[in-house]
């Protein structure tokens, strides 16, 4: 598929990730399957936009034309893109040289609407972003906290244990690609879902989009390919249990928004399998490791139990809030009708 044109969209928002953004762009420049264009979308930060426009002369640097947040940034990138396929890379990630090639080969099948890849964590102590600008493949990937279970790597934006190559319900947003014609068919990313300027680490904009795409285009196929590899940076703050707990709760809130948009049957289909099969196995594995002398295994088992509980609590809170808001809206409408 050498003729396949792929536009790569990178959404940026803060100057604190200056080296990260440049490392991400450098990794796209070095792809075996050359990118048609690199689009950097800056989220309502004029100073950063001006700086990046000067430093990334070979990239298309634009300002987010929609509301603040990741969904608006992605929609802006799609609107600018010229490629047959639009790929998304996080601004704090670097892509392996075969990343785009791994995705491109699947688009020979016209049924394939989107492809996602394997996202590996760069834990604290890994190769710095400044070094990755010159050599995008990291020499060191840092040290995973002993208590951190692989089943919850999604909390740091990475591929989690239990996800297998092949057809999937949704791909992960920081390592994903879609045929460009899918966006007008399915609609763009929902600005009410996903990361914004809000401090709470919400997500799931790509999950809701993928489900909506499949609902409107039932024959479309989404794939996960573990040969399309990127590395995603995990800053020290996100390697702490406090963030883990906060991210789990926020994921529950986000899933409540997703189910309100696309229904609980599709909105929770993958989560049910993960909660009922993958997580119990992970907890048992952690306890077994602990009994064999790896005491951190008990921590991993405990983190799985607590992570599931906090996610469920967030989901329940999100559902209750949504229903309360809907009830108030109905009362307001009824009050206007009575007047």
TrEMBL record:
Protein origin, superkingdom? Bacteria
Which SUPFAM superfamilies does this entry report, sorted A to Z? Nucleotide-diphospho-sugar transferases
| Transmembrane spans | 301-322
Q: What residue stretches are annotated with the Glycosyltransferase 2-like domain?
A: 7-117
Q: Which UniProt keywords apply?
A: Membrane, Transmembrane, Transmembrane helix
**The keyword Transmembrane helix is assigned to this record:** yes
Q: Tell me which Pfam families the record gives.
A: Glycos_transf_2
Residue ranges annotated as coiled coil are: none
Q: Does the keyword Transmembrane apply?
A: yes
Instruction: Specify the protein name.
Output: Glycosyltransferase 2-like domain-containing protein
């Amino acid at each position: 598929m050498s003729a396949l044109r792929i536009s790569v969209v990178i959404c940026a928002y803060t100057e604190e990730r200056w080296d990260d953004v440049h490392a991400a762009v450098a990794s796209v420049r070095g792809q075996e399957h050359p990118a048609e264009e690199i689009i950097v979308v800056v989220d309502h930060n004029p100073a950063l936009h001006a700086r990046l426009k000067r430093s990334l002369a070979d990239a298309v640097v634009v300002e987010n034309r929609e509301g603040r947040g990741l969904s608006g940034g992605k929609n802006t990138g799609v609107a600018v893109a010229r490629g047959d396929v639009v790929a998304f890379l996080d601004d704090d990630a670097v892509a392996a040289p075969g990343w785009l090639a791994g995705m491109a080969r699947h688009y020979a099948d016209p049924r394939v609407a989107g492809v996602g890849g394997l996202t590996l964590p760069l834990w604290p102590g890994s190769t710095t972003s400044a070094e990755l600008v010159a050599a995008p493949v990291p020499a060191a990937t840092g040290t995973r906290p002993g208590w951190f279970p692989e089943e919850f790597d999604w909390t740091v934006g990475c591929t989690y244990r239990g996800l297998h190559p092949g057809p999937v319900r949704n791909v992960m947003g920081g390592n994903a690609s879609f045929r460009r014609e899918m966006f007008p068919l399915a609609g763009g990313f929902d600005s009410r879902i996903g990361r914004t300027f809000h401090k709470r680490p919400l997500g799931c904009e790509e999950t809701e989009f993928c489900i909506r795409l499949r609902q409107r285009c039932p024959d479309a196929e989404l794939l996960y390919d573990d040969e399309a590899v990127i590395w995603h940076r995990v800053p020290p703050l996100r390697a702490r249990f406090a963030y883990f707990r906060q991210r789990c709760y926020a994921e529950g809130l986000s899933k409540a928004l997703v189910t309100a948009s696309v229904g609980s049957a599709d909105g929770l289909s993958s989560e049910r399998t993960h909660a009922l099969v993958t997580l119990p196995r992970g907890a048992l594995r952690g306890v077994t490791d602990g009994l064999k002398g790896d005491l951190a295994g008990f921590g991993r088992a405990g983190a799985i139990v607590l992570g599931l509980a906090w996610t469920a609590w967030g989901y329940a809170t999100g559902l209750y809030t949504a229903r309360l808001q809907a009830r108030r809206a109905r009362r307001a409408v009824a009050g206007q009708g009575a007047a």
